[in-house]
Structures are given as structure tokens and as C-alpha cells.
């Protein structure tokens, strides 16, 4: 599908939160069990200056999804690592948009000197686990049974992808 990737701006936050909240209400992909306000969404995403964040819009201007990177840690020893978050509207999945967002995030991350992208996923989020595996992420560990959502225990699955030069 043809989409345009645009840097996130303040006007995008309400639509981004709506996409996130759809996952809150209709999946087990998020850590939160109840929809969040735009302000709380912004806190959860931990947007970081100078780190890439994109929205994907179709030819009609509809937001298909978003992806962003943030520092993995504030400790300088981990400056080359970043954490990724990516969500697509349900009717836009499986069309290559996630791969386009990931490619743009990787490209911008490499320019920042980032060599590792980390994703932390719920073991109940089969679709995202599959996407990450197909896109070159490697499962590096699990925090077994530490989460509970809607009465279901879940693992936090740690995925890592090396990018750029090491």
C-alpha cells in the first residue's frame, strides 16, 4: 500500500492515541487495560527530542499507523541502543506499512549512531512477535509471567535487532 511517512507533530497525537486505544480495547498488545488520554499516551510513548518518530498516512491522509524510537536508557553506556514502539490501525496491517516504518526508523537511528533496536513485547501479542521475527529481530530473553492483563499472565519478550556498523 502507498503511504507517506511524515515526522510526528503535536497535531498527530490524538489520532495516534486513538490507534493505541483501539489496541487497548481489542487486543492484548498493550500493557494498559483501559484507554488513555492524549496526555497519558504522550507520557507512555516517552517521545525523545532528536529521535525519529513517524506517522504513516495513506493517499487520502488517513493515519495508517505510527512508529517511534526513544533511548533505551539514560545511562551513557547504552547510547547506541534504542527502544521501538510501532502500532498500525488494524485494517492497515499486513500491507508492508510496518516494514516501511521500521526501515525509516532504522535509517534515522543509524545516523544517530544507534547500533541496536530493542522491542519489548507481550507474549500474548502473536502478530507483533511474528512481525519482529520476520524483520530480523532476534528474541534475546523473556521475563516470565511478570505481566497480567485482563486476568491473563504474560511474559515480556525482549527482541533485539542490530543495525548500522558495530
Measure the end-to-end span: 33 Å
Overall mean pLDDT: 95
Gyration radius from CA atoms, angstroms: 15 Å
Largest sheet: 7 strands, mixed
Number of domains: 1
Classified in CATH, the superfamily is Gcn5-related N-acetyltransferase (GNAT)
| DSSP summary: helix tally | 4
What order do the helices and strands follow?
EHHEEEHEHEE
Helicity, as a percent range = 25-40%
The computed structural class is: alpha+beta
Q: In CATH, what is the class?
A: Alpha Beta
From the 3D structure, determine the CATH topology. Answer: Aminopeptidase
Name some characteristics of this structure:
GNAT_dom, transferase, 166 residues, Bact_Acetyltransf, Aminopeptidase, 7 strands, alpha+beta, GCN5-related N-acetyltransferase, acyltransferase
Blueprint (SSEs and pairs):
Elements: E1 3-7, H1 13-26, H2 38-45, E2 53-58, E3 63-71, E4 81-88, H3 97-111, E5 116-122, H4 126-134, E6 138-149, E7 152-162
Parallel strand pairs: 4-5
Antiparallel strand pairs: 1-2, 2-3, 3-4, 5-7, 6-7
Protein name: GCN5-related N-acetyltransferase
GO molecular function: acyltransferase activity, transferring groups other than amino-acyl groups
Pfam family, one: Acetyltransf_1
Amino acid at each position: 500500500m502507498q503511504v507517506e511517512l511524515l515526522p510526528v507533530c503535536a497535531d498527530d497525537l490524538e489520532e495516534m492515541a486513538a490507534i493505541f486505544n483501539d489496541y487497548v480495547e481489542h487486543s492484548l498488545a498493550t500493557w494498559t487495560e483501559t484507554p488513555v488520554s492524549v496526555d497519558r499516551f504522550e507520557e507512555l510513548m516517552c517521545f525523545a527530542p532528536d529521535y525519529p518518530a513517524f506517522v504513516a498516512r495513506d493517499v487520502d491522509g488517513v493515519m495508517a499507523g505510527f512508529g517511534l524510537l526513544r533511548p533505551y536508557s539514560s545511562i551513557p553506556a547504552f547510547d547506541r541502543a534504542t527502544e521501538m514502539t510501532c502500532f498500525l490501525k488494524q485494517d492497515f496491517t499486513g500491507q508492508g506499512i510496518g516494514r516501511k516504518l521500521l526501515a525509516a526508523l532504522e535509517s534515522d537511528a543509524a545516523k544517530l549512531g544507534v547500533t541496536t533496536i530493542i522491542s519489548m513485547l507481550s507474549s500474548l501479542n502473536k502478530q507483533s512477535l511474528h512481525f519482529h521475527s520476520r524483520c530480523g529481530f532476534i528474541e534475546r530473553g523473556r521475563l516470565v509471567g511478570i505481566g497480567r492483563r485482563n486476568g491473563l499472565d504474560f511474559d515480556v519478550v525482549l527482541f533485539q535487532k542490530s543495525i548500522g556498523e558495530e
